[in-house]
C-alpha cells in the first residue's frame, strides 16, 4: 500500500463516478431528469459522493495515521512524491492521510451543523408561519436578535469564555446559532401554503396543528428546505474552516481542512503544497454543494422566481 | 415616515439591548473564575473571596447587571487581560481599520458585482453568461482566508507587487510625503479589500443577474421595448433601476458577511482591526475583548440594516406604509 498510496483514493473516485452514472441511468420522474440534465449538478453530486466515500473509508484510504510524525528530522515539508503523493507538512505528517481524515471532521461538522440548523429553523419557521399572531411575533423577534450577531463572534465568545470545543459540540453550537435565516425562509413559505384549500380542509377535519404542518404544509416547502439545507452545509463548512484556521475551531492534532491551512501558514512560500491541497478540498466541496443546490432548485422548483432562496446567511 | 422610523429605531435598540443582556449572562454562566482564565491551578479560597469582593462579584446578580449596564453606558467595557489596557481603547484603535477595510470591500463587491450581473443579464444564456456564471460560482465557493493566502503568496511573496501585511509600512511611512502616505495605505489595503470584495462580488453578481432577469420579464420593460428604446437603454434605464431595490437589501445583508470575513482576512494580512483583535483575544482567553467585539459587531450590523431599511424606504415609498417585518 505504501508503494502506491494514490490507488485507494482513485478507486473511490472511480466508484463515485460510476455511482452517479448509475443514478442517472435509473433516474425516473421529471425532477430527477431535470437535475441530471445539468452536467454541473451531476458533477457536483459525484464530488460529494467521492468525499463522503473518503470520509467513510478513511482508515482504508489513508496510507498513514493522520497524526503520525513520520520522521521529524528527515521528512519535514517534503514535496509531493510517489511515497507521499501530496507531500508532508512541517511536522513530517503525511498530507494525504491528514486530508482524508480531515474529510471526516470537516464534512461531519458541516453536515451535523446543517442538520441541526435546518431542523430547528424549519420547526421555528413553521410554527411562526402557521400559528401567526403571538407565536410569530415572539419567534421572529428572537430571529431578529439572532441575525444581528455575526455567528463567528458567538463561537469566538463561547471559546474565550470556556475552552476550545470538540468537533461535536462545535457542530451543535454552529447549528444552534445558524438557523435564523432558514426559519425566515420557511416562515415565508408556510405563510402562503397555509392558505391553500387542502390545508384548510385538513384543519376543518380537525387534524391537529403539528400534524397539519408535518403532513400537509411542509411537503409543499420541500424544495426550499432541500436547497437551503445544501447551502447550509456549505456555509457551515466555510465557517468551521475559518474558525479552525484562526485556532478557535477544531484543535490540532485532530486534522480539519481549516487547521491544516493554519499549520501551513509558516511555510506558505517554501512548501505551498501544505496549504494548496486542503484549500482546494474545501473549495471543491463547497463548489459541489453550491452546484447541487442550483441543480436541486432547477429540478424541484423550476417555476419559482429566480430570486427566491439565493440570499443566505454566510 | 416619522412613526415608521421611530418604530424601526426602537426595534434596533431593543435588539442591541437584548444582545447586551445575553452577553452579560453568558459571562456569568461561563465555567471557572474570571481571575484564572487559564484555569490550571486553583486559587486559595480566601484569596478568591477577597478578589470577588473587590470586583463586586459577590453582590446579587441584579446589582451586577445594573452596574454592567451603567459601565457600558459610560463606554467602560472593562480591562483587557492580554493588553493591560481598557478594552474601549483597544476597540477604538481597531474599529476604524475594520470600517475602512469593510467599506473598501463593499465598494468592490457592489461595483464589480452589479457590473458583472448586468453584463450577464444582457448576455443571458449566451456563452459569456455561462462562463461568468461558472466563474462567479467558483469564486463564491472559495474560503476567504484561503483566497487571501493565495493572493499573499502570489502578489506579496512571489511577485513583490504588494506588501504582505499591516496598514502602513512600519519603517518608511513616517518619512513619506502626504501623497506617498496615502499610496502606502492604499497598497496595504489592496489585497485584504480585494480578498473580501471578490468573494462578495461573486455573490452579488449571482443575485443581480437573477434580479435583472426578473425585472426584464415584467410589463414595464415590455412597454419600454414597445416604445422602441434600444436594448441597452431598456436594461440600464428601466430594468436596472428596479433591480437596484433588492441590491439595497443585499447591502444590509453584506455587513454580517463582511464582519465575519474580516475575522479571518484581518488575521491573514495582519490588519489590526476588530476581527484580528477578537481572533487574537480568543487565543489568549481575553474574554472581555471578545465579548466587547461581539457587541461592537452587533451594533454595526444593526446600524447597517437600519440604514439599508431607511434607504429602501426612501427608494420605495410602498414600504413606509406597511408594517415593517
Largest interface chains and counts: A-B, 52 and 66 residues
**First-to-last CA distance of chain B:** 15 Å
CATH structural fold name of chain A: MetI-like fold
Give the domain tally of chain A. Answer: 1
What overall geometry of chain A do the principal axes of the alpha carbons give? flat
Number of helices of chain B: 12
- Highest CATH level, the class of chain A: Mainly Alpha
Radius of gyration of chain B: 24 Å
Task: Label this structure with key terms.
A: mainly alpha, MetI-like fold, B: 325 residues, 12 helices
Describe the model.
The complex is a heterodimer of chains A (314) and B (325). Chain A has a single domain, classed as MetI-like fold, CATH 1.10.3720.10. Helices cover 69% and strands 0% of the residues of chain A. Chain A is built from 14 helices and no strands. In chain A, α10 (197-204) packs antiparallel against α11 (209-217). Chain B has twelve helices and no strands.
What can be said about this structure in brief?
The complex is a heterodimer of chains A (314) and B (325). Chain A has 314 residues and is mainly alpha-helical.
Q: What's the layout of helices and strands?
A:
The complex is a heterodimer of chains A (314) and B (325).
Chain A: H1 7-26, H2 29-37, H3 39-56, H4 58-61, H5 95-131, H6 133-148, H7 151-161, H8 167-176, H9 180-193, H10 197-204, H11 209-217, H12 222-245, H13 257-264, H14 273-300
Helix pairs in contact in A: 1-3, 2-14, 3-5, 3-14, 5-6, 5-8, 5-9, 5-12, 6-9, 10-11, 12-13, 12-14, 13-14
Chain B: H1 2-29, H2 45-54, H3 61-73, H4 87-122, H5 127-140, H6 144-158, H7 178-216, H8 219-226, H9 231-268, H10 274-283, H11 287-315, H12 318-321
Amino acid at each position: 500500500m505504501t508503494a502506491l498510496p494514490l490507488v485507494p483514493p482513485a478507486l473511490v473516485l472511480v466508484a463515485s463516478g460510476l455511482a452517479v452514472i448509475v443514478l442517472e441511468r435509473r433516474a425516473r420522474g421529471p425532477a430527477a431528469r431535470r437535475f441530471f440534465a445539468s452536467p454541473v449538478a451531476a458533477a457536483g453530486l459525484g464530488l460529494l459522493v467521492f468525499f463522503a466515500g473518503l470520509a467513510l473509508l478513511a482508515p482504508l484510504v489513508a496510507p498513514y495515521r493522520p497524526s503520525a510524525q513520520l520522521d521529524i528530522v528527515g521528512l519535514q515539508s517534503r514535496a509531493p512524491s510517489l511515497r507521499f503523493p501530496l507531500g508532508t507538512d512541517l511536522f513530517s505528517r503525511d498530507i494525504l492521510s491528514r486530508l482524508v481524515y480531515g474529510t471526516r471532521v470537516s464534512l461531519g461538522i458541516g453536515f451535523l451543523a446543517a442538520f441541526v440548523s435546518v431542523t430547528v429553523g424549519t420547526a421555528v419557521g413553521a410554527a411562526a408561519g402557521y400559528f401567526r399572531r403571538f407565536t410569530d411575533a415572539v419567534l421572529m423577534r428572537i430571529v431578529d436578535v439572532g441575525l444581528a450577531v455575526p455567528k463567528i463572534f458567538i463561537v469566538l465568545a463561547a471559546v474565550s469564555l470556556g475552552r476550545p470545543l470538540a468537533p461535536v459540540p462545535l457542530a451543535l453550537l454552529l447549528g444552534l446559532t445558524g438557523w435564523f435565516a432558514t426559519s425566515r425562509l420557511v416562515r415565508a413559505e408556510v405563510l402562503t401554503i397555509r392558505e391553500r384549500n387542502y390545508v384548510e380542509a385538513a384543519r376543518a377535519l380537525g387534524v391537529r396543528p403539528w400534524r397539519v404542518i408535518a403532513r400537509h404544509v411542509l411537503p409543499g416547502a420541500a424544495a426550499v428546505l432541500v436547497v437551503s439545507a445544501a447551502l447550509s452545509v456549505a456555509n457551515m463548512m466555510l465557517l468551521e474552516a475559518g474558525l479552525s484556521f484562526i485556532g478557535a475551531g477544531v484543535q490540532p492534532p485532530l486534522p480539519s481542512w481549516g487547521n491544516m491551512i493554519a499549520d501551513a501558514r509558516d511555510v506558505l512560500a517554501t512548501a505551498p503544497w501544505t496549504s494548496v491541497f486542503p484549500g482546494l478540498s474545501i473549495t471543491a466541496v463547497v463548489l459541489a454543494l453550491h452546484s447541487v443546490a442550483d441543480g436541486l432548485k432547477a429540478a424541484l422548483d423550476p417555476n419559482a422566481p429566480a430570486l427566491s432562496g439565493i440570499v443566505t446567511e454566510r | 415616515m416619522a412613526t415608521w422610523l421611530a418604530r424601526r429605531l426602537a426595534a434596533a435598540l431593543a435588539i442591541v439591548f437584548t444582545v447586551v443582556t445575553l452577553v452579560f449572562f453568558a459571562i456569568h454562566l461561563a465555567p471557572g473564575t474570571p481571575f484564572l482564565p487559564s484555569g490550571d491551578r486553583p486559587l486559595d479560597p480566601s484569596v478568591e473571596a477577597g478578589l470577588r469582593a473587590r470586583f463586586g462579584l459577590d453582590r446579587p446578580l441584579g446589582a451586577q447587571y445594573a452596574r454592567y449596564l451603567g459601565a457600558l453606558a459610560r463606554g467602560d467595557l472593562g480591562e483587557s487581560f492580554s493588553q493591560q489596557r481598557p478594552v474601549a481603547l483597544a476597540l477604538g484603535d481597531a474599529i476604524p481599520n475594520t470600517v475602512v477595510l469593510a467599506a473598501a470591500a463593499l465598494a468592490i463587491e457592489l461595483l464589480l458585482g452589479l457590473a458583472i450581473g448586468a453584463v450577464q443579464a444582457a448576455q443571458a444564456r449566451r456563452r459569456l453568461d455561462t462562463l461568468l456564471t461558472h466563474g462567479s460560482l467558483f469564486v463564491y465557493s472559495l474560503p476567504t482566508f484561503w483566497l487571501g493566502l493565495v493572493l499573499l503568496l502570489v502578489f506579496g511573496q512571489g511577485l513583490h507587487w504588494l506588501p504582505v501585511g499591516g496598514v502602513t509600512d512600519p519603517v518608511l511611512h513616517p518619512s513619506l510625503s502626504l501623497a506617498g502616505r496615502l499610496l502606502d495605505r492604499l497598497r496595504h489595503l489592496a489585497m485584504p479589500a480585494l480578498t473580501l470584495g471578490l468573494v462578495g462580488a461573486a455573490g452579488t453578481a449571482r443575485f443581480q443577474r437573477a434580479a435583472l432577469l426578473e425585472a426584464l420579464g415584467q410589463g414595464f420593460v415590455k412597454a419600454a421595448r414597445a416604445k422602441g428604446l434600444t436594448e441597452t437603454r431598456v436594461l440600464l434605464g428601466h430594468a436596472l433601476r428596479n433591480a437596484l431595490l433588492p441590491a439595497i437589501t443585499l447591502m444590509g445583508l453584506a455587513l454580517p458577511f463582511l464582519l465575519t470575513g474580516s475575522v479571518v482576512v484581518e488575521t491573514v494580512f495582519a490588519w489590526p482591526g476588530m476581527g484580528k483583535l477578537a481572533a487574537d483575544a480568543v487565543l489568549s482567553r481575553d474574554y472581555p475583548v471578545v465579548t466587547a467585539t461581539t457587541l461592537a459587531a452587533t451594533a454595526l450590523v444593526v446600524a447597517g440594516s437600519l440604514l439599508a431599511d431607511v434607504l429602501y424606504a426612501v427608494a420605495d415609498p410602498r414600504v413606509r406604509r406597511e408594517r415593517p417585518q
